[in-house]
Amino acid sequence: MKTKIQTGKIISIRGSVVDIGFEDYLPSINTLLHTGKDKNISIEVLAQLDANRVRGIALKPTQGLTRGMLVETEGKQLAVPIGKSIMGRMFDVFGNVIDHQGKLTDVKWKNIHQAPPSLADRSTKSEVFLTGIKVIDVLIPLERGGKTGLFGGAGVGKTVLLTEMIHNMVGHNKGVSMFCGIGERCREGHELYQDMQTAGVLENMVMLFGQMNEPPGARFRVGHAALTMAEYFRDEEHRDVLLLIDNIFRFIQAGMEVSGLMGQMPSRLGYQPTLGTELSQLEERIANTKSGAITSIQAVYVPADDLTDPAAVHTFSHLSASIVLSRKKASEGMYPAIDLLESNSKMATPGIIGKRHYELAQAIRKTLAHYEELKDIIAMLGLEQLSNEDHRIVNRARRLERFLTQPFFTTTKFSGIDGKEVSLEEALDGCERILADEFKDIPESAFYMIGRVEEALMKGKKESDHEVVSEKK
After folding, report:
1. Residues 339, 155, 271, 259, CA torsion sign
2. Which amino acids are annotated catalytic?
3. Strand 344-345, strand 321-324: pairing
4. End-to-end CA distance of the chain, in Å?
5. Contact (Cβ atoms closer than 8 angstroms) between residue 453 and residue 430
């Protein structure tokens, strides 16, 4: 049965905000309207002004629109394609492919506005999501079906960390990775696409972008569109999905722009009065259900490094783990450059990760915190002035710091070091043995960029053999 097309006329245009009049039909909120010369400009209804007028936000630039122009609608909402054939493809917010790889076949279309799973459908079990990255699995365990915030500036390794997680997820868990770029630079999207292709993980990925130069209405809906695709894999294919969002702050920013354009009175610091609701509508759809889980890792930009900013505060309330990337660590070559004392996870409790893991994580944090306090004394007076106990703590901490670095598969072509994936048991075993001073005679450099702790023994032996040969010469 063919859908009846309803028509209306443009009453006013103010930037991206368009008022449209309908005589005998009033479209509901979130309905998609089409106008322009070739009906190529899409407008989403955000408010009903009276019995005959609606106010919408344009999802494309409004150049060429005039008052009195005809507007058509089939009463449908913005929809994206779902199905097996979307794997390995790149989309925009309208569900159009933007990777020049030909048209899609065998797909269904689904509305991007969906309700979060009900409490009855959610899994009540707290499970750890293993990444194969030592420092994260040991000290900042992620939650399966949870949300992790990745805080960091430019050039400290956010994208590399995300790429490695995609590689490990695809390689072992038969999972799907979904990358959602909200307000991304065109260059970043292009580079990521090329990197994924080179790393050989593109066929198990879906990428969706709302670029920085697009109108706020389009950027505001990218997250919902990506979640709709992710929900298909979770609910219909019963697969685990790793959803990477870069950057969640830009979603809030797009909402702020839309709110301002719609004439709403801003709340504190210029944010939209509906900030909490809008963020919740997006975040609550990321969940662990009986059929599968959507685990999300979200890059979070903190305005002016102020963690009391409303955008940061509202985002924090949804996260189950926070990973803070440090420029100081990156400058020392300690990759992944995670600040181990600033980062934390709600999963790090004895009831979830077990007594042994919890006590070991606490011992590592205590050792690293003590070393941090001793750094000023070492800088002023030197290592020789420390007590024997402090000396041992420094030796353990420096070996732990280096052991918690890791060569990544996705950086092999740059570093020349083969990537390593380490199981949780191997990582815990290594940390436990370092804390027990089992390797105190092995040089700390042997622990840098290795996988399992046994590799340090081989590396240390090679270094000592090399030194003996050099002395003989």
Report:
1. negative
2. 158, 184-185
3. antiparallel
4. 89
5. yes
Report CA-CA distances (Å) from 165 to 126, 148, 281, 381: 20, 13, 26, 42
Check residue 233 and give its pLDDT. 94
Which segments within 17-153 are labelled E, that is strand?
Answer: 17-21, 32-35, 41-48, 53-58, 70-73, 79-82, 90-91, 108-111, 128-129, 142-143, 147-151
As a whole number of angstroms, the distance between CA 428 and CA 129 comes to 16
DSSP H helical ranges for 155-215: 158-172, 186-199
pLDDT of residue 216: 93
In 3D space, the residue among 56, 20, 71 whose CA is nearest the CA of residue 221 turns out to be 56
Cβ contacts of residue 190 below 8 Å, gap of 6+?
none
Q: What is the pLDDT of residue 468?
A: 54
Helices 275-283 and 216-235: angle between axes, nearest 10 degrees: 30
Instruction: Report the chain's C-alpha Rg in angstroms.
Output: 26
The residue among 281, 285, 288, 294 whose CA lies nearest residue 251 is 281
- Bridge partners (DSSP) of residue 44 are 32, 57
Query: Cα separation of 81 and 107, whole Å?
Result: 6
* DSSP string covering 86-102: GTT-EE-TTS-B-SSS-
Q: What is the identity of the amino acid at 313? A: V
pLDDT for res 381: 83
Q: Which residues of the chain have pLDDT under 50?
A: 1
Q: Long-range pairs for 60-66 at CB < 8 Å and ≥24 separation?
A: 60/215, 60/218, 61/215, 62/13, 62/15, 62/16, 62/18, 64/36, 64/37, 65/10, 65/13, 65/18, 65/35, 65/36, 65/41, 66/10, 66/13
Number of H helices, E strands in the chain: 14, 18
Is residue 52 reached through a cis peptide bond, with omega within 30 degrees of 0 on the bond before it?
A: no
Beta bridge partner(s), residue 7: 72
Enter the pTM of the model. 0.85
